[in-house]
Design a protein that fits this description.
The protein is an all-beta fold and 106 residues long. It has no helices and eight strands. The protein has a five-stranded mixed β-sheet with strand order 2-8-7-4-5, with no helix packed on it. Strands 1-3-6 form a three-stranded antiparallel β-sheet, with no helix packed on it. It comes from Devosia rhizoryzae.
């Protein structure tokens, strides 16, 4: 399971626009590199990333082999109510990695 780092403010006022950050440690092998024996390194990429806030999807992206290692995303959401901010990554093999933080709205 790859390591992830997410950043969600612990609290926000209702109506605040807050920055959300997420990164996953992944090699994102594009299939064009060769190993020391001259054999192509197989493609190994994260293919999808999504984020939900209190059960509603707020961000989704489909990733391609041209993306660099350790894909990082930064985006904004409008704080409306206290709830979980859930993160979801899936690689080409179907492996799912999840992370979550709770945003408290005052």
């Amino acid at each position: 399971m790859p390591n992830t780092r997410i950043r969600v403010p612990k609290t926000a006022k209702a109506g605040d626009i807050i920055e959300i950050r997420a990164i996953i440690q992944h090699p994102m092998e594009n299939g064009f590199r060769l190993n020391s024996q001259g054999t192509a390194i197989p493609v190994d990429i994260v293919t999808e990333f999504a984020c939900t806030y209190d059960g509603q999807e707020i961000f989704r992206v489909q990733l391609e082999p041209g993306l660099s290692a350790n894909p990082y995303f930064s985006f904004y959401l409008k704080a409306t109510k206290t709830g979980p901010v859930d993160f979801w990554w899936q690689d080409q093999h179907g492996t799912v990695t999840e992370a979550s933080e709770t945003l408290e709205v005052t």
